[in-house]
Amino acid sequence: MSDPVLFSLKGRRALITGASRGIGFTLAQGLGSFGAEIILNGRKADALDTARAKLEQEGIATRGAVFDVTDQDQVIAGIEAVEKEGPIDILINNAGIQFRAPLDQFPRNEWDRLISTNLSSVFFVAQAVSRHMIARNRGKIINICSVQSELARPGIAPYTATKGAVKMLTKGMATDWARHGLQINGLAPGYFETEMNAALVADEKFSSWLCQRTPAARWGKAEELVGAAVFLSSDASSFVNGHILTVDGGLTASV
Ligand code: NDP
Question: In this structure, what is the dihedral angle of CA atoms 176, 177, 179, 182, given to the nearest 10 degrees?
Fold first, then answer.
Protein backbone atom coordinates (compact mmCIF):
# COMPACT_ATOMS: atom_id res chain seq x y z
CA MET A 1 0.00 0.00 0.00
CA SER A 2 3.00 2.32 0.18
CA ASP A 3 3.53 2.05 -3.59
CA PRO A 4 3.97 5.60 -4.93
CA VAL A 5 2.21 4.40 -8.11
CA LEU A 6 -0.97 4.71 -6.06
CA PHE A 7 -0.52 8.47 -6.27
CA SER A 8 0.68 8.56 -9.88
CA LEU A 9 -1.34 10.64 -12.34
CA LYS A 10 0.57 9.45 -15.41
CA GLY A 11 -1.69 9.10 -18.43
CA ARG A 12 -4.48 11.14 -16.78
CA ARG A 13 -5.82 14.42 -18.16
CA ALA A 14 -6.89 17.02 -15.61
CA LEU A 15 -9.00 20.10 -16.32
CA ILE A 16 -8.58 22.86 -13.75
CA THR A 17 -10.85 25.91 -13.92
CA GLY A 18 -9.45 29.31 -12.98
CA ALA A 19 -5.90 28.05 -13.42
CA SER A 20 -4.22 31.22 -14.68
CA ARG A 21 -2.98 32.08 -11.16
CA GLY A 22 -3.34 31.39 -7.45
CA ILE A 23 -4.53 28.05 -6.14
CA GLY A 24 -5.63 26.83 -9.58
CA PHE A 25 -2.20 27.43 -11.09
CA THR A 26 -0.42 25.79 -8.15
CA LEU A 27 -2.68 22.73 -8.35
CA ALA A 28 -1.92 22.55 -12.09
CA GLN A 29 1.78 22.54 -11.25
CA GLY A 30 1.25 19.93 -8.53
CA LEU A 31 -0.89 17.50 -10.54
CA GLY A 32 1.46 18.01 -13.50
CA SER A 33 4.45 17.05 -11.36
CA PHE A 34 2.67 13.76 -10.56
CA GLY A 35 2.39 13.04 -14.29
CA ALA A 36 -0.98 14.46 -15.37
CA GLU A 37 -1.48 16.37 -18.59
CA ILE A 38 -3.05 19.67 -17.57
CA ILE A 39 -5.83 21.55 -19.29
CA LEU A 40 -5.85 25.07 -17.90
CA ASN A 41 -9.06 27.07 -17.99
CA GLY A 42 -9.53 30.81 -17.61
CA ARG A 43 -11.23 33.73 -19.28
CA LYS A 44 -8.12 35.45 -20.62
CA ALA A 45 -6.11 33.73 -23.36
CA ASP A 46 -2.95 35.77 -22.69
CA ALA A 47 -2.94 34.97 -18.94
CA LEU A 48 -3.41 31.28 -19.77
CA ASP A 49 -0.59 31.37 -22.32
CA THR A 50 1.77 32.80 -19.67
CA ALA A 51 0.70 30.14 -17.14
CA ARG A 52 1.10 27.36 -19.73
CA ALA A 53 4.57 28.57 -20.70
CA LYS A 54 5.68 28.30 -17.03
CA LEU A 55 4.36 24.74 -16.75
CA GLU A 56 5.82 23.65 -20.08
CA GLN A 57 9.22 24.91 -18.86
CA GLU A 58 8.84 22.49 -15.96
CA GLY A 59 8.17 19.65 -18.41
CA ILE A 60 4.41 19.54 -17.83
CA ALA A 61 2.23 18.92 -20.89
CA THR A 62 -0.57 21.49 -21.13
CA ARG A 63 -3.49 22.65 -23.18
CA GLY A 64 -5.50 25.85 -22.81
CA ALA A 65 -9.29 26.01 -22.64
CA VAL A 66 -10.54 29.58 -22.73
CA PHE A 67 -14.10 29.93 -21.50
CA ASP A 68 -16.07 31.80 -18.88
CA VAL A 69 -17.34 29.27 -16.34
CA THR A 70 -20.45 31.38 -15.70
CA ASP A 71 -21.66 30.99 -19.30
CA GLN A 72 -23.22 27.55 -19.77
CA ASP A 73 -23.04 27.66 -23.58
CA GLN A 74 -19.33 28.51 -23.45
CA VAL A 75 -18.78 25.77 -20.86
CA ILE A 76 -20.47 23.09 -22.99
CA ALA A 77 -18.58 24.15 -26.15
CA GLY A 78 -15.29 24.31 -24.19
CA ILE A 79 -15.72 20.85 -22.64
CA GLU A 80 -16.71 19.29 -25.98
CA ALA A 81 -13.58 20.77 -27.63
CA VAL A 82 -11.34 19.36 -24.88
CA GLU A 83 -13.04 15.94 -24.94
CA LYS A 84 -12.58 15.71 -28.72
CA GLU A 85 -8.82 15.60 -28.11
CA GLY A 86 -8.96 13.12 -25.23
CA PRO A 87 -10.84 12.25 -22.04
CA ILE A 88 -11.05 14.51 -19.01
CA ASP A 89 -10.17 12.08 -16.20
CA ILE A 90 -9.98 14.69 -13.44
CA LEU A 91 -11.92 17.95 -13.06
CA ILE A 92 -11.02 20.53 -10.44
CA ASN A 93 -13.72 23.19 -10.11
CA ASN A 94 -11.54 25.96 -8.73
CA ALA A 95 -12.55 29.26 -10.42
CA GLY A 96 -13.98 31.61 -7.85
CA ILE A 97 -14.26 35.20 -6.72
CA GLN A 98 -14.67 37.07 -3.45
CA PHE A 99 -16.43 40.36 -2.69
CA ARG A 100 -16.61 42.04 0.70
CA ALA A 101 -19.25 44.57 1.80
CA PRO A 102 -21.55 45.10 4.77
CA LEU A 103 -24.52 42.80 4.26
CA ASP A 104 -27.14 45.57 4.51
CA GLN A 105 -25.35 47.44 1.68
CA PHE A 106 -24.35 44.38 -0.37
CA PRO A 107 -24.83 45.26 -4.07
CA ARG A 108 -27.28 43.05 -6.00
CA ASN A 109 -24.91 42.72 -8.97
CA GLU A 110 -22.12 41.39 -6.72
CA TRP A 111 -24.53 38.86 -5.19
CA ASP A 112 -25.40 37.66 -8.71
CA ARG A 113 -21.73 37.53 -9.74
CA LEU A 114 -20.84 35.46 -6.66
CA ILE A 115 -23.66 32.99 -7.22
CA SER A 116 -22.83 32.53 -10.90
CA THR A 117 -19.03 32.33 -10.51
CA ASN A 118 -18.75 30.30 -7.31
CA LEU A 119 -21.86 28.10 -7.49
CA SER A 120 -23.59 27.89 -10.89
CA SER A 121 -20.22 27.35 -12.59
CA VAL A 122 -19.58 24.22 -10.50
CA PHE A 123 -22.89 22.78 -11.71
CA PHE A 124 -22.33 23.84 -15.35
CA VAL A 125 -18.80 22.43 -15.65
CA ALA A 126 -19.40 19.27 -13.62
CA GLN A 127 -22.59 18.48 -15.53
CA ALA A 128 -20.90 18.91 -18.93
CA VAL A 129 -17.92 16.75 -17.89
CA SER A 130 -20.02 14.16 -16.04
CA ARG A 131 -21.80 13.07 -19.23
CA HIS A 132 -18.48 11.87 -20.62
CA MET A 133 -17.28 10.42 -17.30
CA ILE A 134 -20.53 8.50 -16.83
CA ALA A 135 -20.19 7.03 -20.33
CA ARG A 136 -16.68 5.83 -19.38
CA ASN A 137 -17.82 4.73 -15.89
CA ARG A 138 -14.92 6.59 -14.24
CA GLY A 139 -13.80 10.08 -13.30
CA LYS A 140 -12.74 12.31 -10.44
CA ILE A 141 -14.30 15.67 -9.64
CA ILE A 142 -12.90 17.94 -6.95
CA ASN A 143 -14.86 21.03 -6.01
CA ILE A 144 -12.94 23.76 -4.21
CA CYS A 145 -14.96 24.63 -1.15
CA SER A 146 -13.66 26.74 1.76
CA VAL A 147 -13.52 26.87 5.54
CA GLN A 148 -16.27 29.38 4.81
CA SER A 149 -18.44 26.43 3.80
CA GLU A 150 -18.66 26.03 7.62
CA LEU A 151 -17.73 29.36 9.20
CA ALA A 152 -19.34 32.78 8.84
CA ARG A 153 -17.18 35.93 8.86
CA PRO A 154 -18.23 39.57 8.77
CA GLY A 155 -18.76 41.13 5.34
CA ILE A 156 -18.77 37.95 3.27
CA ALA A 157 -22.10 36.25 3.97
CA PRO A 158 -22.91 35.86 0.23
CA TYR A 159 -19.47 34.27 -0.39
CA THR A 160 -20.01 31.88 2.55
CA ALA A 161 -23.47 31.06 1.15
CA THR A 162 -21.92 30.03 -2.19
CA LYS A 163 -19.24 27.91 -0.53
CA GLY A 164 -21.74 26.24 1.81
CA ALA A 165 -23.82 25.40 -1.25
CA VAL A 166 -20.79 24.00 -3.12
CA LYS A 167 -20.17 21.70 -0.17
CA MET A 168 -23.71 20.30 -0.36
CA LEU A 169 -23.62 20.18 -4.18
CA THR A 170 -20.48 18.04 -3.84
CA LYS A 171 -22.26 15.60 -1.55
CA GLY A 172 -25.29 15.59 -3.88
CA MET A 173 -23.12 14.87 -6.93
CA ALA A 174 -21.51 11.96 -5.08
CA THR A 175 -24.93 10.66 -4.11
CA ASP A 176 -26.12 10.72 -7.74
CA TRP A 177 -22.96 9.81 -9.63
CA ALA A 178 -20.93 7.41 -7.45
CA ARG A 179 -22.96 4.52 -8.82
CA HIS A 180 -21.67 5.49 -12.29
CA GLY A 181 -18.05 5.08 -11.22
CA LEU A 182 -17.44 8.76 -10.44
CA GLN A 183 -15.80 10.14 -7.33
CA ILE A 184 -16.77 13.64 -6.30
CA ASN A 185 -15.07 15.25 -3.34
CA GLY A 186 -14.42 18.72 -1.99
CA LEU A 187 -11.21 20.43 -0.94
CA ALA A 188 -11.71 23.18 1.64
CA PRO A 189 -8.78 25.56 2.06
CA GLY A 190 -8.39 27.83 5.06
CA TYR A 191 -6.68 31.17 4.49
CA PHE A 192 -4.05 31.15 1.73
CA GLU A 193 -1.81 33.91 0.43
CA THR A 194 -3.19 34.51 -3.07
CA GLU A 195 -4.27 37.53 -5.10
CA MET A 196 -7.82 37.00 -3.83
CA ASN A 197 -6.58 37.72 -0.29
CA ALA A 198 -4.05 40.44 -1.19
CA ALA A 199 -5.87 43.10 0.87
CA LEU A 200 -6.16 40.80 3.91
CA VAL A 201 -2.52 39.74 3.72
CA ALA A 202 -1.54 43.43 3.77
CA ASP A 203 -3.87 44.12 6.71
CA GLU A 204 -1.73 43.63 9.84
CA LYS A 205 -4.71 43.60 12.18
CA PHE A 206 -6.37 40.82 10.18
CA SER A 207 -3.16 38.80 9.84
CA SER A 208 -2.54 39.01 13.56
CA TRP A 209 -6.14 37.89 14.29
CA LEU A 210 -5.74 35.00 11.83
CA CYS A 211 -2.44 33.84 13.33
CA GLN A 212 -3.93 33.88 16.82
CA ARG A 213 -7.06 32.08 15.66
CA THR A 214 -5.25 29.37 13.63
CA PRO A 215 -3.51 26.62 15.65
CA ALA A 216 -0.68 26.53 13.06
CA ALA A 217 -0.38 30.31 13.64
CA ARG A 218 0.18 31.33 10.01
CA TRP A 219 -1.29 31.73 6.53
CA GLY A 220 -1.28 28.70 4.23
CA LYS A 221 0.80 28.49 1.06
CA ALA A 222 -0.94 27.23 -2.08
CA GLU A 223 1.67 24.43 -2.46
CA GLU A 224 0.29 22.99 0.80
CA LEU A 225 -2.94 22.08 -1.02
CA VAL A 226 -1.17 19.92 -3.61
CA GLY A 227 -0.90 16.75 -1.48
CA ALA A 228 -4.62 16.74 -0.74
CA ALA A 229 -5.50 17.43 -4.39
CA VAL A 230 -3.20 14.64 -5.64
CA PHE A 231 -4.73 12.24 -3.10
CA LEU A 232 -8.27 13.05 -4.26
CA SER A 233 -7.22 12.86 -7.96
CA SER A 234 -5.38 9.54 -7.73
CA ASP A 235 -6.14 5.86 -7.12
CA ALA A 236 -5.09 6.45 -3.49
CA SER A 237 -8.61 7.77 -2.81
CA SER A 238 -10.49 5.03 -4.72
CA PHE A 239 -13.25 4.60 -2.06
CA VAL A 240 -13.49 8.24 -0.95
CA ASN A 241 -16.69 9.88 -2.14
CA GLY A 242 -18.69 12.93 -1.04
CA HIS A 243 -15.97 13.92 1.42
CA ILE A 244 -14.80 17.47 2.11
CA LEU A 245 -11.07 17.48 2.90
CA THR A 246 -10.13 20.53 4.93
CA VAL A 247 -6.61 22.00 4.76
CA ASP A 248 -6.58 24.93 7.15
CA GLY A 249 -3.80 24.63 9.74
CA GLY A 250 -6.40 23.56 12.29
CA LEU A 251 -8.60 26.66 11.98
CA THR A 252 -11.91 24.79 11.95
CA ALA A 253 -10.75 22.31 14.59
CA SER A 254 -10.70 24.92 17.34
CA VAL A 255 -13.05 27.54 18.75
P1 NDP B 1 -7.46 34.04 -7.42
O2 NDP B 1 -8.25 35.30 -7.46
O3 NDP B 1 -6.00 34.14 -7.16
O4 NDP B 1 -7.68 33.21 -8.77
C5 NDP B 1 -8.97 33.00 -9.26
C6 NDP B 1 -8.90 32.33 -10.62
O7 NDP B 1 -10.24 32.13 -11.09
C8 NDP B 1 -8.17 33.15 -11.65
O9 NDP B 1 -7.40 32.30 -12.47
C10 NDP B 1 -9.32 33.76 -12.46
O11 NDP B 1 -8.90 34.03 -13.78
C12 NDP B 1 -10.34 32.62 -12.43
N13 NDP B 1 -11.71 33.04 -12.72
C14 NDP B 1 -12.45 33.96 -12.06
N15 NDP B 1 -13.65 34.07 -12.63
C16 NDP B 1 -13.66 33.19 -13.68
C17 NDP B 1 -14.62 32.86 -14.67
N18 NDP B 1 -15.83 33.44 -14.70
N19 NDP B 1 -14.30 31.92 -15.60
C20 NDP B 1 -13.08 31.30 -15.59
N21 NDP B 1 -12.13 31.60 -14.67
C22 NDP B 1 -12.42 32.54 -13.74
O23 NDP B 1 -8.16 33.13 -6.31
P24 NDP B 1 -7.59 31.92 -5.41
O25 NDP B 1 -6.58 31.17 -6.15
O26 NDP B 1 -7.29 32.47 -4.08
O27 NDP B 1 -8.91 31.05 -5.24
C28 NDP B 1 -9.18 29.89 -6.03
C29 NDP B 1 -10.38 29.17 -5.43
O30 NDP B 1 -10.08 28.80 -4.08
C31 NDP B 1 -11.66 29.99 -5.37
O32 NDP B 1 -12.77 29.17 -5.63
C33 NDP B 1 -11.69 30.47 -3.94
O34 NDP B 1 -12.99 30.78 -3.50
C35 NDP B 1 -11.12 29.27 -3.22
N36 NDP B 1 -10.58 29.52 -1.91
C37 NDP B 1 -9.51 30.37 -1.76
C38 NDP B 1 -8.99 30.58 -0.50
C39 NDP B 1 -7.81 31.47 -0.27
O40 NDP B 1 -7.45 31.65 0.91
N41 NDP B 1 -7.17 32.02 -1.30
C42 NDP B 1 -9.59 29.96 0.69
C43 NDP B 1 -10.71 29.10 0.41
C44 NDP B 1 -11.17 28.90 -0.85
P45 NDP B 1 -9.27 35.39 -14.58
O46 NDP B 1 -9.81 36.39 -13.60
O47 NDP B 1 -7.97 35.77 -15.20
O48 NDP B 1 -10.28 34.91 -15.59
Answer: -160
Question: Which residues line ligand 1 at a C-beta cut-off of 6 Å?
Answer: 17-18, 20-24, 41-44, 47, 68-70, 94-97, 117, 144, 146, 189, 191-192, 194-197
| Ligand 1, atom nearest to 22 Cα | 25
| pLDDT tens, residue by residue, 66-109 | 999 999 999 999 999 999 999 999 999 999 999 999 999 999 99
Atom number, ligand 1, closest to the C-alpha of residue 23? 25
Q: Is the confidence at residue 255, as pLDDT, over 90?
A: no
Which candidate in 159, 177, 191, 192 is catalytic?
A: 159
168-214 tens-digit pLDDT: 999 999 999 999 999 999 999 999 999 999 999 999 999 999 999 99
Closest approach atom of ligand 1 to CA 220: 40
Listed residue (94, 99, 244, 248) closest to 159, CA to CA: 99
Residues 6+ apart with CB under 8 A from 212: none
How far is Cα 100 from Cα 157, in angstroms, rounded to an integer? 9
What rounded mean pLDDT belongs to the chain?
A: 97
How far apart, in whole angstroms, are the C-alpha atoms of residue 185 and residue 177? 11
Q: What count of Cα atoms within 13 Å lies in the side-chain half-sphere of residue 125?
A: 36
Phi, psi angle pair for 38, to nearest 5°: -110, 130
Our CA dihedral for 223, 220, 88, 47, rounded to 10 degrees, sits at -80
Q: Give all domains of the chain, ordered by start, each with its CATH number.
A: 4-194+221-248 (3.40.50.720)
Helix locations, 137-156, DSSP H: none
